# Entry
Amino acid sequence: MKKKSRLILALDVTDKSEALRIAADVGALVDAIKVGYPLILSSGLGIVNELAQYGDVLCDLKIADIPNTNRLIAEQVFKNRAAGVIVHGFTGKDSVEACVAAAKGKDVFVIAEMSHPGAKQFIQFFSEALAELAVEVRATGIVAPGTRPERIKKLRETVGDLLIIAPGIGVQGGSASAALTAGADYVIVGRTIYEAQQPKKAVEELISQIHMHS
Ligand code: BMP
# Structure
């Protein structure tokens, strides 16, 4: 994944033609396009392949199963030209390792802590251990909450030079500059871009904010 704008678009629209239109419009400006269940369930996994013409596609299936099933899921995703996957770490080392093996050098991001308020109920108790797991299995990096820059700072101490990608910017209340200053490498932004009247303008505004503060 290139590191130029430091912005990853979360393309959670459920209309395939809208997804392709937005990707064509902003794909060259962002560093990656993240797709998950909303778009994949509505359009089929082939959308990953189609979006790959516009840039790196990060497949956010939050893979969370036994090692064999994780492997089967990851293989399908990579067969469709995904540049990376996002996986849960609470399933344990063997399950995450199965994804890393299936990725064959492509990107694997392990969720250390989520951005929404509910993350405080369970996952926050284990986020440092999940970040350590990412280091242990040689994942590409972790997902850390853009809504809690102080947690990004803390998790940065654990992961060293692994990449940190941070969702929760914009609608969820996080700020791109605060997340990047705290140690995130990339911010992930969805609704602020794809719900804007002009997604390209929203992307350009975010990029100028990012470059002013980093
Ligand atoms: P939005 O900017 O519209 O809030 O979108 C954020 C994106 O990041 C969504 O795709 C969401 O599923 C994802 N995400 C998140 O918001 N918090 C997390 O902790 C992990 C995520 O993958």
